[in-house]
Design brief:
Length: about 650
């Protein structure tokens, strides 16, 4: 018995023959016949040169469904079919041994094809013949193998990640999709614990989930894994327990769907929705506050106008003078509250200047030092060379005061620090989207005002409400403090952010747009005139509020004017049309039903282009005048007004040479 080149045993004539005169071929044929008679498998002797069957045993005939004698002399490719037959033929021709390949028997009328394994063994020393050992495969085993191949193909090509765990939650199998999602190879994941792919929060959730799998529960749930690079992988896991026939728990299977991009889109959508709701809430409250302030200003106009007129005509020392003075002071305080409400509504800019914000903070510092707790240490860090901002200095000073006082109160009785900082900033869209702003703001250059304290900090619930009107964490309400701050900032086309956590203090950041273009002309300041200036001529007084008409008429008559009243725009146009040259000046309300102040002004100018019109409004001057830019409006008077304030405005319009500077 020799050995083939393939390493398997070779049947050879080298072994002693029974008849010493026999040739190698005779010996090989005798050995082949002996094998054919004794073989339990399908056996065939094949000639290496012509690849035809020299002999076959009954087992092969039964395996192929053909008569044994009919097989003799048939070519090999009529016995076996499939892509491996050419490889088998080449092995026989070369005399290779120990080669085993899968093949399929040729179908016959009596029997369909069968899957077989064929092993080649050379028979003669010169390689002229070979024995083919043909073993039929068990159909059940073959079906199992096919099923395994199909399922492995499904697993490897599945869109979802597939993850198998043993009873100890260690990885026994993952497909390529699952390992790619986490940034590993399958080999790196196998054997590792499930907890290796998540943070502490995930481990707590996974522990509960595994307990439910061990209890036999299958379910779907969202889960956040941690990728190899530290980023989050958000998934939907369809999980089920692996159990034996007796119901014993042997592990778990998870089908893992990547929803990271969907989650990001949902988060972005939620942030946008929250911003929209916040904007709508602020706009609604702003409209409410502005409307209340406007109406309240009309009421205060009657109170303040009548009281100031009475105070002007009463003799000094009269007992009623003190009463009138207190009424004027109370009405003035009420008017200040209205200004706060206008500030919250975003309509609180009155006198705009182009100025260095650091200088405003510096000039406010003395007031800050006396307003804060003695336990607080105030530190200013003001950048030099800031780009200018266009602001109402009084309003921004109120912002600074409110934020610093709020920081001082956050310290309570404890020692702490308050930092006030200014700096230039280049702001991008991503940052602006996280701010409180009335409308979407453009990217670009801003000036930062930052107030930081080392106080108690705020919870997320408190942060969500700090800009609501009259919301407070203190025992006594503080009115419109931070709400007014927000309104002032919004009115300046700026934005504000707040960062705070319990025990870690609070930081407010206010962004004001850096000024560009020409410097705006400041609105003239209104001051009372000491000299008893008297007017002459007729004034057309147009206002839909009876109380405003009544007090304004009294003041105008006191100043020496004749007065024609109109309750709305249509009545004013009709009176003016009758005699346009009669009126020295028109006092015109901005907000009226029907034909409003803008439309009435246009109609009056059409009748007499040089007519002098003084606009009255409970809103602030800047917002009111934006609708009259370049149209020749003579002046503006803010409601509520005193008798002396109205005198000063009319003197500036009708007698500017004698008006005080």
């Amino acid at each position: 018995m020799a050995h083939t080149r393939g390493g398997g045993p070779q049947l050879s004539a080298g072994d002693p023959p029974a008849d010493g005169d026999a040739t190698d071929q005779d010996v090989a044929r005798a050995i082949g016949h002996a094998l054919l008679r004794s073989g339990g498998f399908g056996l065939a002797v094949v000639g290496a040169r012509d690849l035809r069957l020299v002999d076959a045993n009954p087992a092969l005939a039964a395996l192929t469904g053909q008569d044994r004698r009919a097989l003799i002399g048939r070519p090999l490719d009529e016995l076996l079919v499939g892509p491996t037959v050419a490889t088998l033929a080449a092995a026989v021709a070369r005399g290779d041994g120990g080669v085993t390949l899968a093949a399929v028997t040729a179908p016959t009328a009596a029997q369909p094809s069968r899957a077989v394994d064929v092993t080649v063994q050379p028979l003669a020393a010169d390689g002229s013949t070979a024995v083919l050992v043909v073993r039929g495969r068990d159909p059940t085993t073959e079906a199992l193998h096919d099923s395994e191949r199909r399922y492995r193909s499904i697993v490897e090509h599945a869109y979802e990640g597939i993850w198998l765990l043993d009873v100890d939650a260690r990885t026994t199998l993952v497909n390529r999709r699952m390992s790619d999602l986490l940034g590993y190879t399958p080999e790196e994941m196998v054997g590792r614990h499930l907890f290796d792919f998540m943070d502490d929060v995930g481990r707590a959730q996974a522990t509960r989930n595994l307990e439910r799998r061990a209890a036999g529960l299958a379910e779907d749930h969202e889960f956040r894994f941690v990728r190899r690079d530290g980023s989050d992988l958000w998934t939907i896991c369809s999980t089920a327990p692996l159990q034996d026939d007796a119901g014993g728990y042997h592990g778990a299977l998870a089908m893992v769907l990547d929803i990271t991009e969907r989650r990001r889109a949902e988060e972005a959508s939620r942030r946008l929705e929250a911003q929209m709701l916040e904007t709508q809430k602020l706009e609604s409250l702003g409209v409410l506050a502005g409307g209340i302030a406007h109406d309240f200003n009309n009421i205060l106009t009657g109170i303040l106008g009548n009281a100031s007129l009475g105070l002007a005509v009463v003799r000094p020392g009269e007992p009623v003078a003190d009463c009138l003075r207190e009424i004027v002071e109370a009405a003035t305080h009420a008017a200040e509250l209205c200004r706060h409400m206008l500030a919250y509504s975003g309509k609180g800019r009155f006198v705009v200047e182009r100025i260095d914000l650091g200088g405003v903070v510096e000039s406010t510092a003395p007031m800050l030092h006396v307003s804060i707790s003695k336990q607080a240490s105030l530190r200013l860090r003001l950048a030099r060379g800031l780009p200018p901002v266009e602001i109402d200095v009084a309003q921004i000073r109120q912002v600074i005061m409110n934020l610093v006082i709020n920081a001082s109160e956050a310290l309570g009785d404890q020692r702490g620090e308050i930092d006030v900082r200014t700096a230039p900033r280049r702001i991008d869209r991503a940052y602006l989207e996280r701010t409180h702003a009335a409308t979407p703001l453009p990217e670009g250059d801003y000036v930062l005002l930052e107030v930081t304290d080392t106080g108690a900090g705020m919870t997320a619930e408190t942060r969500a409400r700090i800009f609501d009107p009259f919301f407070t964490t203190k025992f006594t309400g503080r009115g419109l403090g931070l709400a007014a701050v927000l309104g002032i900032v919004r009115g300046h086309r700026g934005a504000i952010t707040v960062a705070s956590e319990p025990g870690r203090g609070t930081t407010f950041q206010v962004l004001l747009p850096a000024a560009a273009g020409a410097t705006p002309t400041p609105s003239p300041a209104v001051t009372a005139v000491a000299a008893p200036w008297q007017g002459a001529g007729t004034v057309l007084l147009v206002d839909d509020e009876a109380g405003v008409r009544a007090v304004a008429r009294r003041v105008l008559r006191w100043l020496g004017f004749d007065v024609v009243l109109a309750v709305d725009g249509d009545e004013a146009v009709a009176a003016f049309t009758a005699d346009p040259d009669r009126f020295a000046v028109v006092l015109l309300d901005l907000t009226m039903p029907g034909r409003d102040g803008v439309q009435t002004f246009a109609a009056l100018r059409a009748l007499r282009p040089a007519v002098r019109v003084v606009l009255m409004s409970g809103y602030n001057e800047q917002d009111a005048l934006t609708r009259f830019t370049g149209q020749g409006l003579a002046s503006f008077v803010q409601k509520p007004f005193t008798a002396e304030a109205l005198r000063a405005i009319l003197q500036q319009v009708l007698d500017p040479d004698r008006a005080p500077p």
